[in-house]
UniProtKB/TrEMBL annotation, chain A:
<keyword id="KW-1133">Transmembrane helix</keyword>
<keyword id="KW-0812">Transmembrane</keyword>
<dbReference type="InterPro" id="IPR001626">
    <property type="entry name" value="ABC_TroCD"/>
</dbReference>
<feature type="transmembrane region" description="Helical">
    <location>
        <begin position="173"/>
        <end position="198"/>
    </location>
</feature>
<dbReference type="InterPro" id="IPR037294">
    <property type="entry name" value="ABC_BtuC-like"/>
</dbReference>
<feature type="transmembrane region" description="Helical">
    <location>
        <begin position="53"/>
        <end position="79"/>
    </location>
</feature>
<dbReference type="GO" id="GO:0055085">
    <property type="term" value="P:transmembrane transport"/>
</dbReference>
<protein>
    <submittedName>
        <fullName>Metal ABC transporter permease</fullName>
    </submittedName>
</protein>
<feature type="transmembrane region" description="Helical">
    <location>
        <begin position="91"/>
        <end position="112"/>
    </location>
</feature>
Automatic annotation (TrEMBL), chain B:
<comment type="similarity">
    <text>Belongs to the ABC transporter superfamily.</text>
</comment>
<dbReference type="InterPro" id="IPR003593">
    <property type="entry name" value="AAA+_ATPase"/>
</dbReference>
<dbReference type="GO" id="GO:0015420">
    <property type="term" value="F:ABC-type vitamin B12 transporter activity"/>
</dbReference>
<protein>
    <recommendedName>
        <fullName>Cobalamin import ATP-binding protein BtuD</fullName>
        <ecNumber>7.6.2.8</ecNumber>
    </recommendedName>
</protein>
<keyword id="KW-0813">Transport</keyword>
<feature type="domain" description="ABC transporter">
    <location>
        <begin position="5"/>
        <end position="236"/>
    </location>
</feature>
<dbReference type="InterPro" id="IPR003439">
    <property type="entry name" value="ABC_transporter-like_ATP-bd"/>
</dbReference>
<dbReference type="InterPro" id="IPR017871">
    <property type="entry name" value="ABC_transporter-like_CS"/>
</dbReference>
<dbReference type="GO" id="GO:0005524">
    <property type="term" value="F:ATP binding"/>
</dbReference>
């Protein structure tokens, strides 16, 4: 296995796995404890429109993705909170709308879209050094904002109504959190792709909840789980010659399901 | 001193359905008012109007002498039992400190003043021993005490409680109302409830709300008031003699 590390693409893949796990460990915890998995899925899929814009304009699709996913996050947050449309309906509509925009723009782009599959299903082995720097920058932004707003986010996720009564703008905080989810999606897209992101965002965080009652410790644990599973998946992808995005999710789901089967079989202690 | 709450001619409707109709209410310093009424009678809406979370179609709201959006940070608010996410990974201590959040900017940490205030509030409600427990591990009555501690940590002038007795057994309820009784010597308390029996002993004033607000400046309510509010005959049961609430009937 060590000889693998000689390859640049392998070194980048390992760096990408670590950088992605940091973002998804921190933000995934909020997604899980605030129970906003569905809206996160909506932002993820709608962001495909940004990939389409990138291709159509002939720029790096990640630069189409960043503004578009931030915009989708804000629109989704506002529509689900302010309009009379039921929240899940609104998310469902925007989810498909973003994808439709992406499909049309890619169809209109002359020639064929190289590595389109990478954005849909991820391919951690093709992450260039420039993307690693971008991921590093996004991680720094996410860590800084969460450090600054840790208490505020905790209150928002625990009790939104109380947060509002305390005189904080719960809506602005919620939109900020959705924007961080959007940035996390940008970080994760090369690793597992749009279709599989939601698993990476939820499983490490949900697993970590079983080992601690502390929000901060949950984040550290989720990062460790994320790094472990993505490296394990990467290794499996090499051994079985299978797409890395899928092997990462498979490795994670297997452990997750076994964990809960084992948990379910243990005699229940009355709490 | 100015009134703690002053509502004048409040009207609220949702999608054309009228929820509050010409509600007037004055609460003075150190009042203990219970608002009772059937489910769907507008009790929670009224609390949200007081806090400025719902803007009335008509009427004026004054809270601690100002606009609720500005002054509600000086109010201790204890929301309904189920409104918060109880399986959430926080301890009692974290929850109580949350009450000080309105004094913090991003990046600012909690300081010794905050920690002293939290310790003080937990002592008042008798929960200091359990400060490291996860919130979901507490019983209904203990959670309710923690939420009261969170609302007390800023030394509020007014405590607003939404259905505080939900999820508490009757022995706990007695302790809980005794805690409120202790607090009322210092601050005004407004409590919304449909638990008629528990209300009677400790409160000073009772109002009945079912779209319209029936309110007397004392704690006697007549069966007529209750019938108008609940729109069905209500059996009145009086409690212990020194605290008789209801007229003999």
């Amino acid at each position: 296995m060590l000889e693998l590390l000689q390859y640049d693409f392998m070194r980048n893949a390992i760096l990408a796995a670590i950088l992605a796990s940091i973002a998804c460990g921190i933000i995934g915890v909020y997604v899980v404890v605030k129970k906003i998995v569905f809206i996160s899925g909506g932002i993820t899929h709608a962001s495909f429109g940004g990939i389409g814009i990138g291709y159509y304009l002939g720029i790096n699709p990640l630069f189409g993705l960043i503004p578009f996913s931030l915009l989708s996050a804000i629109i989704m947050g506002l529509v689900s909170k302010r309009t009379k449309v039921a929240e899940d309906t609104a998310i469902g509509i925007l989810w498909s709308l973003g994808m439709a925009i992406g499909i049309i723009l890619i169809y209109w782009t002359p020639g064929y879209a190289p590595d389109l599959m990478t954005y849909l299903f991820g391919n951690i082995l093709t992450v260039p050094m420039s993307d690693i720097y971008l991921m590093l920058g996004l991680d720094a932004v996410i860590i800084f904002v969460v450090y600054a707003y840790y208490k505020q986010f905790m209150a928002l996720c625990f009790d939104e109504e109380f947060t509002k009564v305390s005189g904080l703008s719960a809506e602005k905080l919620y939109l900020l959190l959705l924007c961080l989810i959007a940035l996390t999606i940008v970080l994760l897209i090369k690793v597992v792709g749009i279709i599989l992101i939601i698993a990476l965002l939820t499983m490490p965080a949900s697993l970590s909840r079983h080992y601690t009652n502390n929000l901060g410790k949950m984040m550290y644990l989720a990062i460790i789980f994320g790094v472990f599973f993505s490296l394990a998946g990467l290794y499996l992808s090499y051994v079985f010659d299978a797409p890395s995005g899928a092997t990462i999710i498979l490795a994670m789901s297997t452990v997750y399901i076994l964990h809960f089967l084992y948990d379910g079989l243990k005699p229940k202690i009355a709490s | 001193m100015e009134n703690v709450i002053d509502l004048k001619d409040i009207w609220v409707s949702y999608d054309g359905v009228r929820v509050l109709e010409s509600v007037n209410l004055v609460v003075k310093d150190k009042d203990f008012l219970a608002i009772i009424g059937p489910n769907g009678g507008g009790k929670s809406t009224l609390l949200k109007v007081i806090l400025g979370l719902i803007k009335p179609d008509k009427g004026s709201v004054s809270l601690l002498g100002g606009m609720p959006a500005k002054t509600r940070r000086y109010v201790g608010y204890v929301p309904q039992y189920h409104s918060s996410n109880l399986d959430f990974p926080v301890t009692v201590w974290d929850v109580v400190l949350m009450g000080r959040l309105n004094t913090k900017r991003p990046l600012q940490r909690y300081n010794d003043d905050d920690r002293n205030a939290a310790t003080e509030a937990l002592k008042t409600v008798g929960m200091l021993d359990l400060k490291d427990r996860q919130i979901g591990e507490l019983s209904g009555g203990q959670k309710q005490r923690v939420f009261i501690a969170r609302s007390l940590v800023n030394k509020p002038k007014l405590l607003l409680l939404d259905e505080p007795s939900t999820g508490i057994d009757s022995r706990m309820q007695k302790e809980f109302y005794e805690l409120l009784n202790k607090l009322k010597s210092e601050i005004a308390i407004v409590m919304v409830t449909h638990d008629l029996s528990a209300v009677s002993v400790y409160v000073d004033k009772i109002g009945c709300l079912n779209r319209k607000f029936h309110y007397h400046d004392d704690k006697e309510i007549s069966s007529h008031d209750l019938e108008v509010s609940y729109q069905c005959p209500v059996e009145l049961i009086a409690h212990g003699v020194p605290h008789r609430v209801l007229k003999e009937h």
